[in-house]
Write a structure and sequence with these properties.
Strand content: 15-25%
Strand order of the largest sheet: 1-19-2-18-17-3-6-8-7-16
Largest sheet: 10 strands, mixed
Number of helices: 12
Bound molecules: S-adenosylmethionine
Oligomer: single chain
CATH superfamily of the largest domain: Vaccinia Virus protein VP39
């Protein structure tokens, strides 16, 4: 089996789509969509591979050598081995075989990863504890960054002894959590920054300039005199963060804010441009990123005539993961693409991506139309489709 770039995948769906477009849409920058060939054209922005992950992970480095060592984020949402049969895939396997596949895929993934990559593996209670051991084996225990608990449902399932409302997303960074923290993005802290004094360094917010006195040196205890002449000693049990000389330097640089019209205690200006954002919590609620029901509803609105895809992830969840783990232009890989949520999020956020899905029907019914509609609302970049065969 080889990877045939530009193969005619889902021809009927493509032709129907092209025929249905009222306005031609350019799926490659600068080119008009005037024939189905263009829609199938390979671009550097996104690539859907129709085929099994085992084969795709071997073929990708041969057919697309430029992806080797470039994958910055690999998000994996495999069948969890729940014992259920879904409309589009069977989720019943022998546990050892399931784990063996997980392991061999992760081993084949390793050479594709960038040195500062992260791998996010999304699971439920069926196999997550055994998968953690496999992840430790493949990437090393020191590569474990954390496990995110995602609130996947809000309604109670009374058929079970406990009504499970969460999934696990295990995050590993082969470079280790400390090194990865330096490259990962924190969460946006909303509208907390402003620029009321037109500071040329841009929007800022202020933080107290005193700390607990436990490890203080004598040079951190002194009386501060504000620009209006008000005197302040450090609050009880605290000392100033900086020495008097350092404070004077910060004042000279315009990095100190004096509240209460110059009468208040000094506060440090922290600039948005210097902020690494907020460290993400390990619990992500449905109200922040969506849940399975909202993801299914959104997909049903888009494809009302189609049998529902049972296990889509909400776009908000994938957008958050892509934003934390990558920057614009970085490469994202998902080799259990399902309905294509990772590809849509990556495309929307200006990342390159490769998605692998073995069920061609799922690609035709969900992935391609979702991507085409994404292009129509934001016609930048291109799409490529390939088939293993
Ligand atoms: C849980 S779903 C992924 C859902 C996806 N995250 C979404 O938001 O729609 C898992 C998908 O992996 C696909 N899959 C399972 N085993 C695979 C394999 N070995 N290679 C490629 N795709 C596979 C299934 O067909 C299914 O669509």
């Amino acid at each position: 089996m080889t990877l045939e770039v530009n193969a005619q995948v889902g021809e009927r769906v493509f032709d129907d789509l092209v025929a249905s477009l009222e306005q031609p849409v350019s799926l490659n920058p600068g080119r008009q969509l005037d024939s189905p060939e263009i829609i199938r054209g390979v671009s550097t922005d996104g690539l859907v591979v129709v085929g099994d992950a085992s084969q795709a992970l071997l073929d990708l480095p041969r057919m697309r050598p430029e992806v080797v060592g470039q994958v910055k984020l690999c998000y994996l949402d495999p069948p969890y081995n729940t014992g259920e049969r879904f409309a589009y895939y069977d989720d019943r396997r022998d546990s050892d075989a399931w784990l063996a596949d997980l392991k061999s895929h992760l081993e084949d993934l390793r050479p594709l990863l960038a040195s500062d990559a992260s791998v996010w593996v999304h699971l439920d209670d069926s196999e997550q504890h055994r998968a953690r051991v496999v992840l430790d084996e493949v990437f090393g225990r020191a590569a474990f960054v954390g496990t995110i608990i995602w609130q996947k449902r809000l309604t109670r399932d009374s058929r079970k002894a406990f009504s499970s409302m969460h999934d696990y997303i295990h995050v590993y960074a082969p470079a280790g959590p400390k090194a990865w923290k330096r490259v990962r993005n924190g969460l946006s802290d909303g509208g907390a920054f402003a620029n009321p004094d037109n500071d040329p360094r841009g929007p800022w917010r202020s933080a107290p300039m005193s700390v607990q006195a436990g490890h203080a040196t004598l040079s951190q205890f002194y009386t501060v005199v504000t620009p209006t002449g008000v005197k302040h000693d450090p609050p009880a049990g605290r000392c100033w963060t900086y020495t008097e000389a350092r404070l004077a330097q910060l004042v000279a640089e315009g990095r100190v804010y004096w509240p209460r019209s110059g009468d208040g205690k000094p506060r440090l200006k922290r600039y948005r441009s210097e902020s690494g954002g907020l460290a993400p919590f390990t619990i992500w609620t449905a109200s922040e990123v969506g849940d399975t029901a909202s993801a299914k509803k959104a997909l049903l609105r888009e494809f009302p005539a189609m049998a529902a895809f049972d296990t889509p992830k909400p776009i908000g969840l994938l957008e958050r993961i892509v934003e934390i783990a990558t920057n614009p232009g970085d490469l994202v890989l998902d080799y259990y693409l399902g309905s294509g949520t990772t590809a849509v999020a990556a495309q929307r956020l200006g990342r390159q991506w490769v998605g692998v899905e073995r069920n061609e029907d799922v690609v035709d019914r969900f992935v391609v139309p979702r991507l085409v509609s994404e292009y129509r609302s934001n016609p930048a970049g291109g799409i490529g489709l390939s088939r293993l065969g």
